[in-house]
Amino acid sequence: MNRMHFADSSDDDLLRAMMAGDEDAFTALYRRHQGSVYRFALHMSGSTDIAEEVTQEVFVFLIRGAKQYDCSRGSLNGFLYGVARNHVMRRLERDRSYGEPPDDAYSVDDDTFGHIVRSRQVDCLRKALLALPEHYREVLVLCELEEMDYARAAEVLECPIGTIRSRLNRARQMLAVKLRANERCPA
Amino acid sequence: MNRQEDLNDVLKMLADAGPREAPERVEMAVVRAYRKDRGARRMRRVVASMGVVGAVAAGIAVVLAIPKQAAPPDAVTARMPPPAIAWSASPAVSLVVNRPAARVHKSRRAFSAEQVAISDFVPLSYGDDALIAESARIVRVVLPRSALRMAGFNVAQEQAADRVRADILLGADGLAHAVRVVNE
Lengths: 187, 184
Fold this sequence. Notes:
The complex is a heterodimer of chains A (187) and B (184). Chain A is mostly helical. Chain A has helices at 3-6, 11-19, 23-45, 48-65, 76-98, 113-130, 134-145, 150-157, 161-184. Chain A contains 9 helices and no strands. The longest helix of chain A has 24 residues, at 161-184. Chain B is α+β, with helices and mostly antiparallel strands and 184 residues long. Chain B has helices spanning 4-16, 24-65, 129-134, and strands spanning 77-80, 84-87, 95-98, 103-104, 116-117, 122-123, 136-144, 163-170, 176-183. In chain B, a hairpin with a 5-residue loop joins strand 8 and strand 9 (176-183). The relative contact order of chain B is 0.13. At the A-B interface, helix 3, helix 4, helix 6, helix 7 and helix 9 of A face helix 1 and helix 2 of B.
């Protein structure tokens, strides 16, 4: 099997090849899933450093613990989200203990006026998102920012679909309240 | 921020903001981790197979180096004609079995010369000498000492879990009728 074939291969085939020692299969698997894992960690933590660290930890976990993945229980992507979620929660918990603030994850380097305004808007949104409790934030990140359907979000978060719906509704309300409060404050 | 559409626009903006993918250095790091893990697994396999080969070689060397001994079998059966037995009437019961020229199966190994019986056969409570007279077989086994209590042996509690070799006298019914302890 070479790289050309990997584009059409299923996750399970890639995983099997990876476990048999095929580095190209592992690279293909990484490239297929790293974006979603990275963005999830980024939205949840508000920090590119944490997002990078979590992405690395998730795939190192896959290297060492691929046998723990059971394809009959869900997709590989859902499994990776679950691992990423655990790592993010652990990291946030640790940072809370040390009181480390997240870095400026969404800042824009270009200093044109338009980008500065947009950067401030995004920064304001990010702060509102990060102010949500984690169990509301993760539903919002998965369903709204990552456009995951409710069934998959329920699989990743290991809760019923009804819980996803109600949490998402509540998260949107809370975010709206926080954004209104931010509008009243200077940027 | 009253309308749902506004909130959707805000969320869309947030979703589009920031990098979409992990930087290249993360891929390099995980690929390095993968190579390291594969290397470690290969090394473990090599060490394990060398261990197996070494163990087999050592086993062969030991077998070749040690002169053949009549090792005590775990279970050796000696068929014999019906023995003449005499039960003693005393509480320290003993069963004397006169075995005229007991024939040992050719396929089975004989009892070790180093092993000697340190007690006479002690009849078990349900023993029936008629069944032993009909035909008898002796089977050598390894028992926990505690099992000897049922034959009337006095076994200290701290030694109950120790294992001892014993000959079991089986009657025509296939049941154990007497036991004796064997010393190695």
